[in-house]
Amino acid sequence: WGICNAMYFTGTEVDASKPKAAYPIRILVKDANSGTIICLQRPIPVDTTGNMTLYDLLHKYFIDSVKLPESKDSKIDQRIVIAGINPPLDSSVDGLCSSLSHADNFLYICIRN
After folding, report:
1. Mean pLDDT, to the nearest integer, of 63-87?
2. Is 98 helix (H, G, I), strand (E, B) or coil?
3. Residue 93 reports pLDDT greater than 70
4. Cα separation of 19 and 14, whole Å?
């Protein structure tokens, strides 16, 4: 919890009334060459408009690691799994973080190549 608090929340404690500094997200990708699973983690600044979609997040911050469809109009990418489901690419990142985060407060996005 300490790592998540220090990196992603303002202040010293997690407080729902204080804004998040960044989305706590970890992306798990299987390396095509070695077959090992790589965990990609970086602070993603909170989108104050609330309009950032899953497609936008992956395209903007993880484009080098994740192969995406040409458009976010694709309904569902079967390779993207969050908490056992395949969310639509137009899902709100804020909504995903608040409803599908793991017990450690991170949102784990698994990418199957």
Report:
1. 73
2. helix
3. yes
4. 9
Rounded Cα distance, 64 and 49, in Å:
25
Q: Which amino acid is at 50?
A: G
Residue 57: φ, ψ to 5°: -60, -50
Place of tokens 């009334």: 17
One-letter amino acid identity for 8?
Y
For the record, the structure tokens of 73 come out as 């109009």
- Who contacts 91 (Cβ-Cβ below 8 Å, separation ≥6)? 53, 54
Q: Burial, 79: exposed, middle or buried (Cβ in 10 Å; 0-12, 13-18, 19+)?
A: middle
Tell me the DSSP string of 50-101. Answer: S--BHHHHHHHHSTTT----S-TTSSB-TTEEBTTB--BTT-BHHHHHHHH-
**pTM above 0.85?**
no
Residue type, 38: I
